[in-house]
Amino acid sequence: LAQASEAPAAGALQTRGYDKIGRNDPCPCGSGLKYKHCHGKLT
User: Which residue among 32, 33, 35, 39 is least packed, with the fewest CB closer than 10 Å?
Assistant: First the structure.
């Protein structure tokens, strides 16, 4: 029960830690391709 009081506050939401990737930006996987030609195809 002591662990329940250690929960983060409701306003302390976690963020992903990265910005939105543009379609013409390099893919973050490191392939050297544009995002739209690499992992951007999946979305």
Answer: 32
pLDDT tens-digit readout, 3-43: 655 655 555 555 555 678 899 999 999 999 999 999 988 76
Q: What is the dihedral of CA 30, 34, 36, 41, to 10 degrees?
A: -40
Contact 13, 22 (CB under 8 A): no
Residue 11: both structure tokens together:
């306003």
Tokens of 18: 């990265």
Q: Burial level of 16, CB count in 10 A (0-12/13-18/19+)?
A: exposed
pTM (predicted TM-score):
0.50
Q: What pLDDT does residue 26 have? A: 95
